[in-house]
Each structure stands twice: as structure tokens, then as C-alpha cells.
Amino acid sequence: MTPLVSVCIPAYNPGPYLELAVESVLAQDLEEFELIVVDDASQPPVSGSLPCFRDQRTRLLRNSSNLGLARNWNRCLELSQGEFVTIFHQDDVMLPGNLRAKARVLQENPSVGMVYSDIMRINEAGVHIGGHWVPQPGADLVGSGGLLYQMVAATGNPVSCPSVMVRAEAYRRLGDFDTSLGYAVDLEMWLRVAAEYDIAFIASPLVAQRVHAGQETARYAGTGKDYLEVLRALDLAYHRRLPAALLHTRRQAYWTLASQCLPMLRWKLRQGKLVPAWRYGLAATSALLRSIVPSGG
């Protein structure tokens, strides 16, 4: 029987949190799902640390060689069989009702390509340390993909990847995650989906996103590579043929990115870290130049 939802966990040297992530998925009150963990050639293999894989809804697969983040996410998509797909992170926790609430939104709104929710943030010990990193809408909403473009233009990426559920048909239609990206690979995909579909948001926090030094995004934080990747994700989004309403957000999106780069540039200069400072300066200058080009240019 085809599952309604595929939950995919791309895993690589996951440390102590993967079992908690898996348990939080298996505890969901929606029964019609499959859980796929794709081990990207971890050492030691993930299979040795997951006794809970006796559950019949789960599949554990291991890549013969390391594919890297984006390619492993695409491997997850290739393996998934559900009508809806969630790429869930190996160190995060699903809160009760997450899968049911998001699947219901997609079932009731055929025009919606993706739904995401608010989140809470937790530390290494699982202690609540805050909410989402940017302000979110105060109530549930279903609207055009232009809403996401407007939010990105105002604040940067407002979407936490593990909080997203996407219609599998949208992935098949729009293609794989862009393997030239790492840090901003999710942002580029969400903008791709929002250019073609409506989006939905659930105001309740339905995922606990763990913040710790060993997470994948920590490799980019403070290096300048993070914002250079965001710049590339915006370039990819805005170089597509877009409706005027989406293209209209272009200048503000680049301006916002430039304004976010400048404090990082100053911080790195104060630290004497010239290579990251140079990268933030390059991202800021490039984004600023793009922001003064008319939207049709």
C-alpha cells in the first residue's frame, strides 16, 4: 500500500541525536507514512545505533560512497513513495501532530505545493532556547507563492527545512535539489516551489530544531560561504521566468541580503579574520549591485 507521507532522514555521522529523531517520527499519530533513513556512508554505519528499526514502517539504506548533502537529499526523493514528502534532519525532533496537520493541509488544498510550520529551537540537551529565527505570520495561512517571495525579501529565508512537507508531484515536476549548493540548497528549492504553487503555513510550532556545534550548517556559519550561497540561491530564483508579482520582490531581496552581510563583515574585521570578512564583503557588494538593477534588468 502506497504511504500518504514519506519522511526521509538523510544521515551522515549523526552522533547521539538520530535515535531521538527517529523515535519522534514513529510516535506521530498519523499511521500512513514510511520512514526512510539514508546513511551517506557514515563511519561507523548508522545501522549499529538504531535498534528501533524493527518498526515495519521504516527502511534503512546505506550509500556505497559519500554523496554529500544535496545528492543524498536527492537520493531520499528517489527512494520515497509517498504522496507527500518531508526531508527531516537527523538531529531534530517532530512534535506531536506534525505529520497529520501538514498532510491535512495538502489534502484539503490541491493548489498548495508545500506547507511549513513555525518551530521551536532546542539546545544539545533538548532544552527550549527560543522560537523561530525570524518573525512568522501570527495565524495559519494558505496563499500564493508570492507570500514566500515577500517574506524572503523582507527577512531572508523564513523556512526551517525540517518543518516543510512538499507534494511529491511538485518535486517530480520541478526536479532535484541543486547539487551546486549546500547551505542554501533548501531555500533555492522553496523558491522554486513557490514560483509554481501556492504555499501554506501553520502557526503552531510542530518541529523542535536542535542548535549545536556539530550540525551541518555550523560548517558554514561565520565563514562568509553562508551568505555567498544565499546570493547564489537568489540568483537562481530570479533568473527564472517569473510572474511580475514575484519579480517585483527582487530588489528588496538583494538589499536585505546586503544589509545582513554588513554586520558580519564588521564582526569578522574586528576578529582579524580577513578571509571570511572578504567573503561577506563580496556577498554584500554583489547583492547591493543587484539591488540597484531594475527588476526587469
Q: What structural class do you assign from the helix and strand content?
A: alpha/beta
**SS elements, strand count:** 10
Structure annotation, total helices:
10
Distance between the termini: 50 Å
Q: Largest beta sheet, briefly?
A: 10 strands, mixed
Mean residue pLDDT: 94
Q: So what's the overall shape? A: globular
* Regions with little confidence, pLDDT below 50 for 5+ residues: none
Strand content: 15-25%
Q: Over the alpha carbons, how many angstroms does the gyration radius reach? A: 19 Å
Oligomerization status of the protein chains: single chain
Helical fraction: 25-40%
Order of helices and strands: EHEEHEEHEEEHEHHEHHHH
Describe this structure in words.
This protein has 297 residues and is an alpha/beta fold. Strands 1, 2, 3, 4, 5, 6, 7, 8, 9 and 10 form a 10-stranded mixed sheet that branches. Helix 4 runs parallel beside helix 9 and helix 7 packs parallel to helix 10. The protein is globular and about 55 Å long. The termini are far apart.
Walk me through the topology.
Elements lengths: L4 E7 L6 H9 L6 E7 L18 E5 L6 H11 L4 E4 L5 E2 L3 H11 L3 E11 L5 E3 L10 E3 L2 H10 L9 E3 H7 L10 H10 L3 E13 L14 H14 L5 H4 L2 H22 L2 H18 L6
Parallel strand pairs: 1-2, 1-4, 2-3, 6-10
Antiparallel strand pairs: 4-9, 5-10, 6-7, 6-9, 8-10
Helix pairs in contact: 4-9, 6-7, 7-9, 7-10, 9-10
